[in-house]
Amino acid sequence: MTDSASKLRQDLRAAGLSSAVIDAAWPAWWSDAAASSTSAQVELRLSLARNLGIAPKALIGEKVDFVWHDRARFKHLKASETSELGALESFGTSMAGSLIQAAGDGPGLVGLSAANLRSILLTESSTVDLPSLITACWALGVPVAHLKIWPLDRKAMHAMVASRDKRHAILLVRETSFLSPMAFTLAHEIGHIALGHVRSDELLVDAEDPGAAVEDDEEERAADRYALEVLLGDPDPDIRLNLDTFNHAMLAEAVKRQGPEMGIDPGALALAVGYRQNAWPVAMAALKLIQTEPAPVGDLVNAVARSQLSFESLGSDNASFVKRILGFDDE
Ligand SMILES: [Zn+2]
Question: Quick check: 292 pLDDT over 90?
Fold first, then answer.
């Protein structure tokens, strides 16, 4: 790599971006021969700027300056953890913009009540689960994708919602092999959009599992209640089990029997017990008996994204970047 390109890479690293995300943003056409061309050098910088949300001028000058900053709210994050968040904010907003541009339009989720969303979903399937939530988001013009590459060296967050041009995109980050925890996360993020928590050109980041976090934040509580109402039909479900006598196997049997009778996905019901009674180990053990074949849920999320996104509506460098971030390695 030439001096100028390696200096550029160092500057991007110094601004807090991970090597993996810089590699993903680096255009495939770049070569040592391209380095001697001024127009290729400019093109390289414009591509990186577009993909990573950096002001193009900054890449020609000396300091990396993120286009999108001071527009994000971070949930469950301690003040001591806030370095490098400008890089995350610009990446998230830029990525959301690309997904929105490549996704079909729709009425969006803002203002849609949990009860309405649940009744729409129940006209198509017997319970509300992850596939039905994903399908609804895309049908309403809200892309949902799972990030396979994380823009920072530091710990990954849980999920993000970003808005561009009055539309929204949901970026899932958590890794899980079970459908129900991801369904809860997605329903929580849908709640943030529907309840108007993410205004135009803003980004909201959930740093931790919304279900498992101790909530002292009004928006977080409201998004949890929204999720519970969509998934269970009740924002405040009165579920109580004596977990001294009710083990995970009995919980799994009970929710498999009773969930479908109430239009509730058994995994969602087991998680609701964990949520209400702060009994995550029992709920997670029950999940393993409910979904007996664990598989990376992010792959399922991105299989739908792949079928829905029109990559030809993006510039080729930007399309390559989005495909790498979503783990599509066939470009
Ligand atoms: Zn949240």
Answer: yes
